[in-house]
């Protein structure tokens, strides 16, 4: 799966009207790029200049359920969507997962405001269903975006010296988000890989040079990707439903920035995760179906099951010798069995 979070996308009136009348241009762009690799757009949500898109390989689609989106404005006291958070939540192989893309307040002195806005987003976003109503109720949360945390205390000369000398560890302990993870209860349990790449803000647009304007903003790791695994719960959850099936584990394989992009004053950040999903063995789904009114029965009617990738089974229904396989690629059909 691929989740893409964007911030400060052009949200002028003419752009928003075009996106409202036609397919969102960002969705079209990423679909054009990813569709040759068999990715399908699962869901997208936009709040002015903040966009979240979630893609998945086509063979995962039967196992993605309960897809919902939400957004929370925090700009101008909650009335403007230039700041805030957008989310996509869904069940992935029986585990509730939430992707949260945020754009939090800027400037060094606004750390407390960032904490308050993040707490507001967590409080305001509520989903329907018997399980995982709030963001932190999910089995796995990916939190990312322009979180705008800065480097405290150290002056700009020392920060640039540490970057040029590749001694980034000297900056980590003064990073506001690293400090907050050990002091803010709302961030308890969130994990992040080591910041082994240079601060991603602020650059002169079109270059790899840090801010040379009169303001000379101090470099900072404003663009971050974190995750949190919910501790396993015993017994049944709300409404008698089991919150998830089996064991869930996450390993971060890569965490990096991309200096080659110069169209923004930020450098984009990417992470690759391996998510291990273990489902309960011997657990079957009950499938019910009924004949359509006026359907003419035949001894050639059949229902088949075939394997989807290496994950499980998907039902097929056919009439006579023609399979109605809902667009499933033909290379999967040799796995079918007819009863």
TrEMBL record:
GO terms for cellular component: cytoplasm; plasma membrane; ruffle. It comes from the Eukaryota. Pfam families: Exo_endo_phos2, SKICH. InterPro entries: Endo/exonu/phosph_ase_sf, IP5, IPPc, SKICH. GO terms for molecular function: phosphatidylinositol-3,4,5-trisphosphate 5-phosphatase activity; phosphatidylinositol-4,5-bisphosphate 5-phosphatase activity. One of its GO terms (biological process) is phosphatidylinositol dephosphorylation. Residues 1-281 form the Inositol polyphosphate-related phosphatase domain. Coiled coil: none annotated. Transmembrane segments: none annotated. PANTHER family: INOSITOL 5-PHOSPHATASE, PHOSPHATIDYLINOSITOL 4,5-BISPHOSPHATE 5-PHOSPHATASE A. Belongs to the inositol 1,4,5-trisphosphate 5-phosphatase type II family. This is Inositol polyphosphate-related phosphatase domain-containing protein. It comes from Cyanoderma ruficeps.
């Amino acid at each position: 799966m691929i989740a893409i979070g964007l911030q400060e996308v052009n949200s002028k009136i003419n752009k928003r009207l075009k996106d409202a009348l036609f397919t969102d241009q960002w969705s079209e762009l990423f679909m054009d790029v990813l569709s040759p690799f068999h990715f399908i757009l699962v869901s997208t949500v936009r709040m002015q200049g903040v966009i979240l898109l979630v893609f998945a390989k086509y063979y995962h689609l039967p196992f993605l359920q309960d897809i919902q989106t939400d957004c929370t404005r925090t700009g101008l006291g909650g009335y403007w969507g230039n700041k805030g958070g957008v989310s996509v939540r869904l069940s992935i192989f029986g585990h509730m997962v939430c992707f949260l893309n945020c754009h939090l307040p800027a400037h060094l002195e606004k750390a407390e405001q960032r904490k308050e806005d993040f707490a507001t987003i967590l409080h305001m976003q509520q989903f329907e269903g018997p399980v995982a109503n709030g963001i932190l109720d999910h089995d796995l949360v990916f939190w990312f975006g322009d979180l705008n945390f800065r480097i405290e205390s150290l002056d700009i000369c020392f920060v640039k010296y540490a970057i040029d000398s590749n001694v980034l560890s000297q900056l980590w302990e003064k990073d506001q988000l690293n400090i907050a993870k050990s002091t803010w209860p709302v961030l308890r349990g969130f994990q992040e890989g080591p910041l082994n790449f240079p601060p991603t803000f602020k650059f002169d647009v079109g270059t790899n040079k840090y801010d040379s304007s009169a303001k000379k903003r101090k470099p900072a790791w404003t663009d971050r990707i974190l995750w949190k695994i919910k501790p396993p719960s015993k017994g049944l959850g709300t409404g008698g439903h089991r919150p998830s099936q089996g064991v869930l584990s996450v390993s971060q394989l890569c965490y990096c920035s991309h200096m080659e992009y110069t169209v923004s004053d930020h450098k984009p950040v990417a992470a690759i995760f391996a998510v291990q999903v273990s489902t309960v063995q011997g657990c079957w789904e009950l499938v019910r179906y009924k004949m359509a009114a006026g359907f003419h029965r035949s001894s050639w009617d059949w229902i088949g099951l075939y394997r989807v990738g290496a994950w499980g089974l998907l039902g097929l229904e056919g009439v006579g010798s023609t399979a109605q396989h809902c667009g499933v690629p033909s290379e999967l059909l040799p796995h079918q069995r007819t009863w």
